[in-house]
Predict the structure of Adenylate isopentenyltransferase 7-1.
Amino acid sequence: FSISAMKQVQPILSFKNKLSMVNVNSFLRPQEKVVFVMGATGSGKSRLAIDLATRFQTEIINSDKIQVYKGLDVLTNKVTPQECRGVPHHLLGVFDSEAGNLTATDFCRLASQEISTLSANNKLPIVAGGSNSYIEALANHSSGFLLNKYQCCFIWVD
């Protein structure tokens, strides 16, 4: 399996300049992919996400609603730099809890930007964390951004 190996969609009809106002390019492009790693606390989500990111040379987007904040490393079992094995993590320990809460809407906006950036750089976005409310908000976002644009793989770790 290769990240660059994307499903090719062949057109059923050929318009060949007959309907120049119809833009079928968005229907014909290969769909990009996003992997979600979810599960209970202490189930090995981070380890699996790091293994996948190492294998596919990509990056991880944190979706744990406590681990987005600076500090609390021991309390939240946040991955250490050694455990990250050089895999870049986004939205991990970057917000100050005293500045206010990161809402699900905020997370959707930020995670969507990270997913788009990684995809634009031909990297497979891996979203990992135990806060299913963030993942659910992203999957059900009103714009349909995620499910309309990407093929999603949801992995539950027990």
Notes: The longest strand covers residues 32-39. Residues 104-120 form the longest helix (17 residues). The radius of gyration is 18 Å. The chain has a mean pLDDT of 81.
